Amino acid sequence: MLTVDQLTDAVAEYVRRLEAGTASDIAALYADNATLEDPAGSEVRTGRAAITAFYRELDGLDVTAELLTVRASGDTAAFHMRVVTTAGGFITSIEPIDVMTFGADGLITSMRAIWSPGDIVHRRSTPA
Amino acid sequence: MLTVDQLTDAVAEYVRRLEAGTASDIAALYADNATLEDPAGSEVRTGRAAITAFYRELDGLDVTAELLTVRASGDTAAFHMRVVTTAGGFITSIEPIDVMTFGADGLITSMRAIWSPGDIVHRRSTPA
């Protein structure tokens, strides 16, 4: 079982890679047979190839990610973060609560992102 | 499947009952065979009797509960809240992130509370 500090550090590293890493960098934080459900209730993606493909949607976008709150206990971390992407003249901001479980090796074994369309804000990146 | 509004309302009702309800009032929001794990990684309590017993620890305490952030999607809601209890001259504040799943009938089917001892603040309720 990871400690609270290890879980918290693992979340911080995930947020850093979300901002600065490639899809492969992010997917490398997941266990081989991990599951990803983003948002919760949508298709569950299983395995690192499917997970890499999911994050590839962020490649080429300008992404900033900020950790707002993180909690950890047992094998689980839950965190509220703000992810801002800029593309095509629009800034999109989303602030989900993500829930992750981890294996003893520190790799993510499951991720569920809890958010709905009302949690997304779109705006033009340049004043009209 | 509940809507996002229904999930959000169910969380708000849970927080209200945490503050103003009895253990039975709170447990009535759970499905008969629901599970409760608080904090995540501790013993899983199963069924409404075990869940009622868990909340009975709050009976007789002065409790305030404030919802800070809630997110919902699919069958799941995740929320950050502040729970403050006053007893024996001490005020205890804890701010967990809770994750709940719900059945189509609106009852909670599982709850996991993500927090660690570092997320608890104790202080005297009266100045020395």
UniProtKB/TrEMBL annotation, chains A, B:
Keywords attached to this entry: Isomerase
Protein name, as recorded: Steroid delta-isomerase
Principal EC category: isomerase
Domain SnoaL-like: 11-110
InterPro entries: NTF2-like_dom_sf, SnoaL-like
Pfam families given in the database record: SnoaL_2 (PF12680)
EC id: 5.3.3.1
Highest taxon of the lineage: Bacteria
GO terms assigned for molecular function: steroid Delta-isomerase activity
